[in-house]
Design goal:
Rossmann fold; homodimer; 23 strands
Chain lengths: 438, 438
């Protein structure tokens, strides 16, 4: 891709309500822009990142045997009345009326619709299990939308729902999804923890959350330094005010708190801040019973489906990557989330030899399967282009400038900002090695 | 893919309000199901087809230099007030109120939001042209939603918007998009016509529609049998009642009507029925003026963007393919829209030799890059599987049955329903030849 062909409106202005680095850099880097309170548009670079994340989520789910569907975003309120959730959901679920004065909602989640879809279509235990998911628009009318796309009202969620003939099989799928989620977050290059989220006993497996570790995270979690145990503090402290006061502490303040508990493995526990990006839940037959969704069991008797449900905040992940990976200059994308891996900066694109050398490297990298963009803009100067590179956060830049006459270019590592001279004909080789090791 | 791993709930029951073949077969074939009036869910097979169409649309647009974005579906009504469309759009645009009693709409189209996105971000004529598109949910609160996903209230639309410094460049892009749309509909395997849709004079190019020819089409178009001229009859007959009465005629009745006009090329004109699947429109500066969206021209003066807009009904295309390609037994997908190209029917999957032979062919086809599904269901009999093949409409089936002991299988062409014996080790070769020629 060429910068001159892609709409990348970077800016030096911060959004007025900015608190978090991801909010600041995603807006300033031309990834997203605000349309209204808690409503965001994805501009071309943001859409590319969103699609990369979406593709990884889909690939891993499909490999695990899940089937993708796409449910209507507007759903009749009658569905929610029947499950009893119309009231429970409160004001976060936005009710609307159509032209005939009939009642609908903007889906905040889709348990009911998914049960209706499977009901009467999966008839026998022989047709089970079934695991259906979608990656689709959701709406939650938060009272105070904030933090950019990290906590918008309209967002992209992966929501999955599995149906089983018995609890054992449901737990098998729950465990499979835990493993699948780990693969997804690992491929995204995230430092994350799986934590127990069920209320009460440590070690329960009824509900697990996936947290991206980030100092700015809204949740406080307790993790073991020796094993992979982790828990949301909500499951540890029974006193709600204690939980609230811990959540209000900054990461730095938290680190000064002593943890009296020990992990059952004997390891030391410590507090971390996390952003919840995934949640998996053993539902049982709550919804299938409420909506009378039965199958015929081995004895020919009707039985309500055992269910589990699995969520990932797909658009939230875009911001989470940046909360975990940024510096004071801008974004630092991970290898599998970067809109492009390499940015070829032609210092002065009006100089024919610089532009030609840039295009030659660009074509070579492209031919070798490296996702590359070339900053071929004639009207922008070098400093501006370097600023865009740092703000947008491509993993590597190749700077073509003065040393071209000696057959040299400079390779810049976005994470360390280290520069390295490189011969023109070794650029691909050097970059490939860096990418392989990253 | 294996049938046993994919949720494909075929059914013999017709939807209660069914009129059109696509509605009947897409519901019965397990592609879609109804969630509410004009609200549909895409089940796994339907989602696969939708994604195939979406991918082709995206590939061709990207090749033509367009940039994909994704706008918020819920938009503030203030945007629509400022353009003056809040009133014009009438009841089809659904107004909603959030928890703070602020007014929003479910986007029926996105001219305003797209102008706002570009405004103040594209500053100079040097940054033009820009062509941004999205493939995203839309909502139009039709008074009488009908015909399944052909005329739903919630649907998937590709809407594109281009911005230019002058009219000539806008027309260049308009022509480029006409060519791009032709490539898209050709790749989808559709028999379609581009027709003039501007009111009044024949030959005007201010607005063009793309119609899939189908006897069930809602629109009546006049096409030339010698050249590629075509026009919506709305542009030909000034008398509205004449247009209405022609639109009410069935395809058969229309064929009996004599056409008195001749094409300017001298060719014979005839009436056809069409389904509108695309519309491109030269907008000029209507929206950029209303929303005060200017750029700096060559003389350093502010000037309103010249715009064009380009739509494709992506979910409607799923139904359109079937309106044009079906028989009394079910769907007949085209090569690039088929959820899978080949269905390997294991007549009796309880017989080990049949299942083994099926899996061997399945692996061979897959290894050779053919999109294949195997009907490995143990509990279904041959007749049921063949019925599903005909209803779902995969282009080819490979039937593994009694003649396996002689080393033979049967290849069935879904379109002609012709059967052909084939040696086990020649299946790939024979299918590849058929696919190459289709």
């Amino acid at each position: 891709m060429k910068f001159s062909n892609l709409f990348i409106p970077t800016s030096k202005e911060n959004p007025s309500d900015v608190v978090l680095p991801s909010h600041q850099f995603l807006v300033r880097g031309g990834f997203v822009n605000q349309e209204g309170a808690g409503l965001y548009n994805f501009m071309p670079l943001g859409k590319i990142v969103l699609d990369k994340i979406r593709t990884i989520v889909k690939e891993e789910l499909d490999k695990a045997g899940c089937n993708e569907v796409q449910l209507s975003f507007v759903t009749p309120i009658s569905l929610w009345d029947r499950s009893g959730r119309a009231e429970d959901m409160g004001k976060e679920m936005l009710r609307i009326k159509d032209r005939h004065d009939n009642d609908f909602v903007l889906s905040p989640t889709n348990e009911e619709a998914m049960v209706e879809l499977v009901k009467n279509r999966v008839k026998s235990y022989k047709d089970l299990p079934v695991n259906l998911y979608q990656i689709n628009t959701k709406f939650r009318d938060e009272a105070r939308p904030r933090y950019g796309i990290l906590r918008g009202r309209e967002f992209l969620m992966k929501d999955g729902y599995s149906f089983h003939s018995n609890t054992e099989d449901m737990i098998r799928e729950f465990d499979l999804m835990e493993e699948t989620y780990k693969k997804i977050f690992t491929r995204l290059g995230l430092d994350f923890r799986v934590v127990n989220a069920d209320s009460g006993a440590i070690g329960g497996s009824g509900s697990k959350e996936f947290h991206v570790l980030a100092n700015s995270g809204e949740d406080t979690i307790l993790v073991c330094e020796s094993c992979d145990y982790g828990a949301n503090i909500e499951t540890i402290f029974e006193d709600e005010s204690e939980v609230d006061s811990l959540n209000e502490l900054s990461y730095e303040q938290l680190q000064e708190k002593e943890v009296t508990q020990k992990c059952s493995c004997g390891g030391k526990l410590s507090f971390k801040k996390g952003i919840e990006v995934g949640h998996i839940f053993q539902l049982g037959d709550k919804y299938s019973k409420a909506l009378e969704a039965n199958f015929q069991d081995e004895n020919g008797k009707p039985k309500a489906f055992e269910m589990a449900t699995f969520g990932i905040g797909v658009s939230r992940l875009v911001a989470s990557v940046i909360e975990q990976n940024h510096d004071e200059k801008g974004c630092i994308w991970t290898k599998n989330t970067a809109p492009y891996l390499v940015d070829i900066i032609v210092s002065n694109a009006k100089k024919e030899d610089e532009l030609d050398a840039g295009i030659k490297i660009y074509e070579e990298l492209k031919a070798n399967g490296i996702d590359v963009i070339i900053d071929d803009r004639k009207k922008e100067r070098f400093g501006f282009k370097m600023g865009d590179f740092e703000l947008i956060g491509f993993p590597y830049a190749v700077v073509i400038g003065k040393k071209l006459q000696d057959g040299l270019v400079e390779i810049v590592d976005r994470k360390t900002l280290e520069k390295q001279e490189c011969k023109l004909d070794e650029v691909f080789e050097v970059l490939q090695k860096k990418l392989d090791n990253s």
